[in-house]
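Internal tracking record. Fields below are filled automatically when a chain is submitted to the structure queue. Please do not edit lines marked as system-generated. If the sequence contains nonstandard residues, flag them in the REMARKS field before resubmitting.
Queue: standard
Priority: normal
Entity type: single polypeptide chain
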Amino acid sequence: MKVKNLNLCWMMAIAAALSVTFAHGQISGSQAQIGITGKFKAATTETFGDSRDAVSATSEIPSGAARPGALVPVAIHVKVKSGWHMWPVESQARSVADAEVFEGAIFSTLALQTSPLQTATPRESKLKLVGAQWPQPVGAAFDFGEGKQTLAVYEGQLLIFAAIQIGADVKNGPLPMTLLLNFQSCNNTSCLAPAEIEIPITLQVDSAAAAVAPSGEFQKFDPAKLISDATEIKLQSGVQFDFFGASFSVDPQGAGFFLLLLVAFLGGMLLNFTPCVLPIIPLKIMSLSQSAGNRGKCFSLGVVMSLGVIGFWLALGALVGGASGFSAANQLFQYPAFTIGLGIFIAIMAVGMAGFFSVGLPAWVYAIEPKHDSFIGTFVFGIMTAVLSTPCTAPLMGAAAGWAASSGNTSTVLIVFGTIGAGMATPYLFLSAFPNLVARMPRTGPASELVKQVMGILLLAAAIFFIGAGVNGLLETPTRTHWWLIGATGSASGLWLFWRTLQITKKAIFRLLFTAISIAVIALSVGVSMALGGAGKTEWIPFSSEAVAAAKSKNKILVLDFTAEWCLNCKALESAVLDSVDVATALAQSDVAAIKVDITSRKSNGWNLLHDYDRVSIPLLVVQDAKGKVILKSDAYTRAQVVEAIQSARAAK
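SYSTEM-GENERATED OUTPUT FOLLOWS
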């Protein structure tokens, strides 16, 4: 290896430091995971049993169809194993003579949820869990180390009735929903981890249905005995979008599907302005400028790159629509080998772009160099651009992709994902169609070399990001050290731009302009390191099913931040919004449970929870009140939105 410029030998030191930085971490062993067991969501840990080990539940609905506006009882048959108990609902904790209240009890609750993507009900229709008819608890003796106590519990065979009010304007047809039974099971000396059982049911709605007298178990249903636990849900047939406070919905049926495609197209276009893709746009502009003198070739290169972008998104759509266990584009980054490999690949391209080293590499490496104007290189560069976009989710794009993935229709997934790719490719096609827009870029000489060197160093910073994110996927406790290396590399690009500008030109206007750019790059790099390299202002609770169940049992407002180390959008929102003083203060209140759902690794136990909210990509922030009603669900939110959502959830209590 021959060093062309000794002033930048520090780059070799950064690469060495990167490998040393993460070497001290210990690789994670087995981790708690959430999976699907039958129709119930199961959580397992190595140190605690699961409450579902002692409790099972099934459901039964009345025969025949229900009329709009009807109150429908749903019977839930619960079986508690011999020797085990369930805590009752909180209002029954003292209903047994001489019963005490155990402070650590996770009381039973029942909630209702439904997917807006599964129903053709009008947007303003409502579905409401009016309450539940719980069985009378019994007294049981416990000894948790503080002497014997008599506590109210459920045991044996239980019959619970959930009373569901159907909106008066609900259309005829199937009405799918899910009842959520949260509980904790204990024996006389110890308790298992709290758990949640999902009970899916589908009611048939028919405005012409005749009233039928209750029979069998449903004769025991008495509305006067309902314990109010109302959860009101607006059933929305449209796909919901939230763009920094501007909320709207699109009905994907009929002509509305084309409007949904337009929104997906705009979301794909906005991908180019996310932190993942924005840094590499100048690279392609420089590449196109090389062919600006030949309009036909310039446009052909733009078409080939666009095909690379669209082809990658179609391949992702095929995986999401047809591959078992694959449901999201950014799921690729849950594999550390992929993320680290991509980082190394980008690092090689960065070295080639900057031209600091003469390295003997295979011919195929030079063929895909960003400045290369071959069709193969341009096509692969288009694929790489699309790959780099997948850790980020643009506004509008996440909901469209989530709807497509949950539709269960492969052709729909391919159409929506292909449209996202087309939106992302359009700016490059536009630039290639009008080469005069890039013709003024320097093509040869010291100025051109300086641009390539600065962009190469910034590309090296991107490589460090991916390598660091991939290594974090291997560590039991993620480290933020790589953000300081990224900041140092970015600052070096600014310093190099300043130093070389002084050497290249003596014109005051150019020196002033590029000095200002240098200062901005350095300030941004230092700011990123300080914001993301240290601890945030909020003490987040690591996600687990136990943590969520505990928060629900204490009637807390639930704030879920879905994030990952490889998600730059997530980091940007966390720094700009969630770590702001007003939001951090709101999250620190005693009635709020701020839970961070980190899906950096494919071993993460939060991926299924993301699907529960009808999303397949991050970032995502969910604010949910104590009754289970979602107040805010957004991938592009503001400080005011988060604070107002928490206040609204508190008012609902």
